[in-house]
Design brief:
The chain is an all-alpha fold. The protein is 75% helix and 0% strand. The chain is built from three helices and no strands. α2 runs antiparallel to α3.
């Protein structure tokens, strides 16, 4: 990624700070689930279906972590840091 936050080395410093990452994860998640629903819903035990399920869940989990950090952890951290000053 080209943004400053995504150029960080540590994984937890990247989460919840990059809107581009969240947009990409949202798009990938929607694409994975639509493709699975249209082409693989009838054969959930096929290798393609299982791969799309894993990809969809992985995108959803990473997107959830981004959103959790952005809307819960970082605001609480900012409020906590502001109280100490």
């Amino acid at each position: 990624m080209a943004c400053r936050d995504c150029s960080e080395n540590w994984f937890w410093k990247k989460l919840g700070r990059c809107k581009r990452c969240m947009d990409q994860l949202t798009s990938l998640s929607v694409i994975c689930w639509v493709v699975w629903f249209v082409w693989f819903k009838e054969t959930p035990s096929s290798i393609g279906s299982i791969a799309l399920l894993f990809a969809g869940f992985a995108c959803n989990v990473l997107l959830f972590l981004h959103l959790w950090m952005k809307f819960v952890v970082l605001p609480l951290k900012k409020r906590h840091d502001g109280d100490q000053q």
